[in-house]
Write a structure and sequence with these properties.
Helices cover about 30% and strands about 20% of the residues. By secondary structure, it is an alpha/beta fold. The chain has a six-stranded mixed beta sheet, sandwiched between helices.
Length: about 700
């Protein structure tokens, strides 16, 4: 049995939450016994300073406890996490316990519930002050101090008429019955750490280090490959789906981020950045998020162990005794080569290869003297686009012929994303091209395999087909383009961002839900999962076509009615003719940019109609140049409008495919011709219509 001395402030709330935390720790670790030791801090002895004052030191409620931790008088101290000072420059370690209370604030009235015309409101923070001014503009604001029981006593004596307090504190003191009204975080944003409990300790205390390691979440260090589907593992997508925070590198496609429902922060390094400073910042962000109890994913391009500073990050995590797990990804040179018909190895003539970085740790070009130069193989250089000329000179000096084949290529396929040459002329060809980093530099016979292993079968026969819009739509288009022998080219114009699911409040009173797109169905399902809605409680569902119905099936839901002609207008007309919505409460869920006529058409034919936007279409940073293409496809008016706004000159003398009448109308309104529109309005039939035109158009 190990005994630990746990310090806390002497207030009733501090003692209550510390006793509760001790009980939870002892339940998890039955060989531990914790003794409570109470202290008075500056915040306890100073009852006059307002908590809204700007000059309050950050250790107002922790100074005495910090000294006791550092001196060894106690093993650890328990705090309200929102009162924790910044320990980044202090010799004190910390972490949040995994057990949390309600984060919201609440309103407490006097027991007689009498509220005067000009009430006196007791507050103790700037956020609460702002909320009170908006809710009771004629009220008098009273800065109130003291413990919770004392504040409630002041309320019941009539010194104030209303109190704003934290739900967590009242619950921990057994005073939850005094809550008159809980305030949502949308109305009154609270401190991000309200309701959480923090523990501080001396880093030399190995017992506390072990407790922290066991109670914190494991950080998952994941390889994203190129960021596209199929280049990362199921373990990576699973880790992202549960993450509170994703710290992502820059050099990857955003498609992989669709799995992440938490916050995403870019921490990637580029050529001109101070890599050492940024890496230190990454370590600090990882440490803070993990210690705050968050589920963290560190997302790296390619494979984490390949030129990814994985060793530095693992050394840092091990030094701080933090739990971690690494998930591999497919390296760029493995997936990008296949996009250009290049085989890394071949039984006939390529029996070995070397992978190297073109830039050493100090930023200088790699010294090729210690680099293997296989006669029957190839060399792949990462981070080398600024070093190509120097690398070529060094390899020629090492004895390679100046005519040795070379190539520089990006992850996307197509001739616009690869430059071929030899050691003598590749630098000049690269400078004249429109390519830029990130790219891989290939030296050796594999660079000669021009389109040798690209699929040439299929009716599209290598046609470059540009898909514009959201990642989900592009994914479906590109799969069919590849299947039919075309060359899919993605131009992500916007991402879809889920809104708060306020529509769930209407679910129990709804008879029919109408989903106007596959994306709407996808976000609908995601919200059901997040909010743990029993699918047996779902009302009838109508969809505009099979793509939306397929999304529902992923969650075991079946569409009760699917439009026969795959459009919103057709769905509305069919539902009206079948009289399915008579005396029904109908809920339409769609995009904030939706131009669907469903609401207008259905309102006269149902009892109540509500419409909510499931998601927003947020424009993404634009490419400097639109990729070259033969045919461009649009699956929504919003996709066309964004493309036309920024790349309209690329539509000249190009074939245009539209998914259906609504999108076609938007394109024609701007004076453009639509060459291909399928008779069945979905992505698969759009691409098959293009293939039909290629094969049989006269």
């Amino acid at each position: 049995m190990k005994t630990l001395k746990i310090g806390a402030r002497g207030s009733a709330l501090s003692v209550a939450q510390t006793k509760q935390s001790i009980a939870q720790i002892e339940e998890v670790f039955p060989e531990l016994k914790c003794e409570l030791v109470t202290f008075s801090t500056a915040g306890d002895t100073d009852k006059t300073t307002s908590l809204t004052a700007k000059n309050i030191p950050d250790n107002f409620f922790s100074d005495t406890l910090d000294k006791a931790v550092l001196s060894g008088e106690i093993d650890a101290a328990v705090h309200s996490a929102k009162d924790l000072p910044d320990y980044s420059t202090k010799e004190i370690e910390w972490f949040y316990l995994p057990w949390r209370e309600d984060q919201r604030d609440c309103i407490i009235f006097r027991k007689d519930n009498v509220i005067p015309t000009n009430p006196k409101i007791g507050i103790s923070s700037r956020n609460r002050d702002k909320y009170v001014k908006e809710k009771w503009p004629d009220g008098k604001h009273i800065a109130i101090r003291g413990d919770i029981e004392n504040r409630i006593t002041q309320l019941d004596r009539g010194e104030v008429d209303i109190l704003i307090l934290a739900v967590a504190g009242l619950n921990r003191l057994g005073l939850g019955d005094r809550i008159s009204e809980i305030i949502s975080c949308e109305e009154l944003p609270t401190h991000i750490d309200q309701g959480k409990i923090a523990v501080t300790f001396n880093p030399s205390n190995n017992d506390l280090m072990m407790i922290r390691m066991m109670l914190l979440e494991t950080i998952h260090i994941c390889g994203a490959g190129t960021g596209r589907d199929g280049n990362y593992t199921h373990a990576t997508s699973e880790a992202l789906s549960h993450a509170d925070l994703c710290l992502r590198d820059t050099l990857m496609n955003d498609e992989v981020l669709d799995h992440c429902h938490g916050s995403i922060k870019s921490v990637g390094k580029r050529y001109h950045d101070n890599a050492s400073d940024i890496q230190t910042s990454i370590h600090e962000k990882m440490l803070h998020a993990i210690c705050a109890g968050e589920k963290v994913v560190r997302l790296k391009g390619g494979d984490p162990a390949l030129f990814g500073r994985l060793t530095e990050e693992l050394e840092f995590l091990n030094k701080n005794k933090l739990p971690w797990k690494v998930h591999p990804g497919i390296p760029w040179f493995c997936s990008a080569t296949l996009k250009h018909g290049i085989m890394i190895t071949s039984r006939k003539d390529i029996r070995q290869f070397t992978v190297s970085t073109g830039t050493q740790a100090d930023g200088t070009t790699i010294d090729c003297e210690d680099l293997a130069t296989p006669l029957n193989g190839s060399m792949y250089f990462y981070m080398a686009t600024r070093k190509i000329e120097t690398i070529c000179q060094k390899l020629i000096k090492q004895g390679l012929s100046k005519h040795t084949p070379t190539a520089i290529f990006r992850e996307d396929g197509g001739e616009g994303n690869i430059v071929r040459g030899n050691l003598e002329n590749i630098q000049d060809k690269f400078e004249k091209s429109t390519m830029n980093a990130p790219a891989i530099f290939l030296v050796g016979s594999a660079a000669e395999q021009k389109n040798s292993y690209l699929p040439t079968y299929g009716p599209l026969n290598g046609l470059r087909i540009l898909s514009c819009g959201s990642p989900l739509t592009q994914k479906r288009l590109n799969a069919e383009i590849s299947k039919l022998g075309g060359q899919p080219i993605s131009l992500p114009l916007f991402k879809l961002q889920k809104r708060k699911a306020i529509w769930l409040d209407e679910l129990s009173n709804t008879d029919w839900i109408i989903l106007s797109s596959a994306s709407a169905a996808s976000f609908f399902i995601e919200s059901l999962k997040i909010h743990k809605v029993d699918i047996r409680d779902c009302p009838c569902i109508a969809t505009t076509g099979p793509s939306a119905s397929r999304e529902l099936l992923k969650y075991g839901l079946h569409s009760d009615y699917e439009a026969k002609e795959y459009s919103s207008r057709s769905l509305a007309q069919e539902l009206i003719e079948a009289k399915l919505l008579k005396d029904s409460n109908v809920l339409i869920l769609n995009s904030s940019l939706s131009q669907s006529p469903l609401s207008e058409l259905l309102t006269p034919h149902c009892k109540i109609l509500n419409k909510f936007h499931l998601y927003d279409n947020l424009e993404l940073p634009l490419y400097e140049e639109c990729p070259d293409f033969d045919i461009v496809t649009f699956c929504s008016p919003s996709a066309f409008n964004v493309f036309n706004k920024h790349y309209s000159h690329h539509l000249k003398n190009k074939k245009v495919g539209s998914i259906g009448p609504v999108t076609t109308a938007a394109i024609k309104e701007k004076g453009y011709k639509v060459d291909i529109e399928p008779k069945v309005y979905d992505t698969i039939h759009l691409i098959r219509s293009i293939a039909s035109r290629v094969l049989w158009s006269t």
